[in-house]
């Protein structure tokens, strides 16, 4: 299986070389596991290394990190540590462990174990393979390679989805990502877990984490379609129905995101997954959406953006859809909104004027500011106070509507405004 080793992305070589040296010196058994091995076999590039140590994984992580300038975060309760070198390289280390589920859908009790125990606790055969660092040998107790060949997703035991219902979503996600099929018996177990309402029993924060991962997939629409078919979305909110037209929205979102990226409009970072979530929750009213955000424990800023979309007034939409609209009005509607909301509007409404106004906003008006400053107003003998904001707003409107262009014109406008007032 040294052939497999040769498929490891070059940028990881230096790290793996060092890990192998530590392994040799310390006489430990160390393995690549999980998604990294799966993707290696599939020939899919994956830089997220997952390492299992038969012994003290945290110590191994620290010995390794000592050679590089990265940061290790330890999770002593789980015997795991994460090494982060930069935004591209993250390595998860763990001590081989055994897991027992005291109650369905609850977190497991963990204790030290062998590599076999560690692989046995995993979700699917395709994710339960390991490669030994010292011998380069592939360890495949559960026939994962064969399942990959047969394009099957298979659980390791019948109660897998009951123990951990996030695996229901994981199975669907991997199925759609790699074009696999959930194997017959596994699908039966999955449906039994759905009948027992296991997704509803999951802690909402765990549900959130897996939901976000799905929405960050390359093709979340496929995963969502399959969830709709197998489970529906009542596990997110009892009133949540996702009609067929929402699935066309998902498709358009991907197109709009690509359009947005190509246009280089982005001035601040954007969470594309939030747009998919807005679409997913589109049929719910504001109150229900608020409840979903609370239940999932979304961050303040995330909730704010999702609710802002639900709160856009009919008047704003009708104004944006009108054939001629003053730039100052375009600005007044769109500037306070996040890019996620703006893109969602472009996805949701087919009106050409609305789309044109959004494009104009992104190309021209977004972030527009006046040249004059508080010092300029002060210099003109104006007393600092709320009147400053009013003046700035008036000048900005004039600038947006092309009534003033230069700083001199702005100053002249302010003079005339002040004159009128006195
Ligand atoms: P991705 O490519 O989406 O990151 P991954 O398989 O690497 O997929 P992770 O969530 O990073 O997924 O998990 C790493 C490994 O940990 C998995 O390959 C699997 O072996 C195991 N694992 C993760 N989640 C579970 C779970 N809920 N139940 C059992 N094993 C799990």
Q: What is the domain tally?
A: 3
Determine the CATH topology of the largest domain: Beta Polymerase, domain 2
Strand content: 5-15%
Q: Which molecules other than protein and nucleic acid are bound?
A: adenosine-5'-triphosphate
Residue share in helix:
40-55%
Number of strands: 11
- Kindly state the mean pLDDT as a whole number? 93
CATH superfamily of the largest domain: Beta Polymerase, domain 2
Supply the number of helical segments.
23
- Stretches where pLDDT is under 50 for at least 5 consecutive residues are none
The strand line-up of the biggest sheet is: 3-4-5-2-1-8-9
Structural notes for this entry:
The chain is α+β, with helices and mostly antiparallel strands and 422 residues long. It has 3 domains: 2-148, Beta Polymerase, domain 2, CATH 3.30.460.10; 239-368, cca-adding enzyme, domain 2, CATH 1.10.3090; 374-421, no CATH class. It has 23 helices and 11 strands. Strand 3 and strand 4 form a beta hairpin. The protein is elongated, with a radius of gyration of 28 Å. The site of adenosine-5'-triphosphate has 12 residues, from helix 8.
């Amino acid at each position: 299986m040294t052939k497999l080793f040769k498929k490891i992305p070059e940028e990881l070589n230096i790290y793996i070389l060092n890990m192998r040296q530590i392994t040799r010196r310390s006489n430990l058994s160390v393995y690549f596991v999980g998604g990294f091995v799966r993707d290696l076999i599939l020939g899919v590039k994956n830089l997220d290394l997952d390492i299992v140590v038969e012994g003290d994984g945290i110590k191994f992580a620290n010995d390794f990190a000592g050679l590089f300038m990265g940061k290790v975060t330890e999770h002593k309760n789980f015997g795991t540590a994460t090494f982060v070198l930069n935004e591209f390289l993250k390595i998860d280390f763990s001590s081989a462990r055994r897991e027992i589920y005291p109650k369905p859908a609850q977190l497991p009790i963990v204790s030290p174990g062998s590599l076999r125990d560690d692989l046995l606790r995993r979700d699917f055969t395709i994710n339960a393979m390991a490669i030994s660092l010292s011998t380069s040998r592939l360890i495949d107790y559960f026939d994962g390679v064969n399942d990959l060949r047969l394009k099957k997703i298979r659980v390791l035991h019948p109660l897998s989805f009951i123990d951990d219902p996030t695996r229901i979503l994981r199975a669907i996600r991997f199925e759609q990502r790699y074009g696999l099929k959930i194997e017959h018996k596994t699908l039966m177990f999955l449906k039994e877990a759905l009948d027992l309402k296991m997704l509803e029993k999951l802690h909402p924060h765990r549900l959130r984490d897996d939901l976000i991962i799905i929405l960050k997939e390359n093709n979340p629409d496929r995963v969502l379609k399959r969830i709709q078919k197998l489970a529906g979305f009542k596990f997110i909110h009892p009133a949540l129905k996702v009609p067929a037209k929402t699935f066309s929205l998902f498709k358009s979102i991907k197109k709009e995101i690509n359009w947005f990226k190509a246009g280089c409009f982005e001035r601040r970072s954007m969470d594309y997954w939030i747009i998919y979530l807005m679409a997913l929750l589109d049929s719910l009213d504001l109150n229900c959406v608020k409840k979903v955000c609370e239940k999932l424990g979304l961050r303040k800023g995330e909730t704010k953006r999702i609710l802002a979309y639900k709160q856009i007034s009919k008047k704003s939409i009708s104004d944006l859809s009108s054939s001629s609209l003053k730039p100052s009005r375009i600005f007044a509607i769109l500037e306070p909104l996040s890019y996620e909301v703006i893109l969602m509007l472009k996805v949701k409404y087919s009106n050409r004027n609305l789309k044109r106004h959004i494009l104009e906003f992104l190309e021209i008006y977004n972030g527009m500011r006046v040249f004059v400053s508080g010092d300029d107003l002060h210099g003109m003998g104006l007393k600092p106070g709320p009147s400053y904001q009013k003046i700035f707003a008036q000048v900005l409107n004039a600038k947006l509507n092309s009534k003033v262009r230069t700083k001199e014109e702005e100053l002249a406008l302010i003079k005339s405004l002040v004159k009128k007032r006195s």
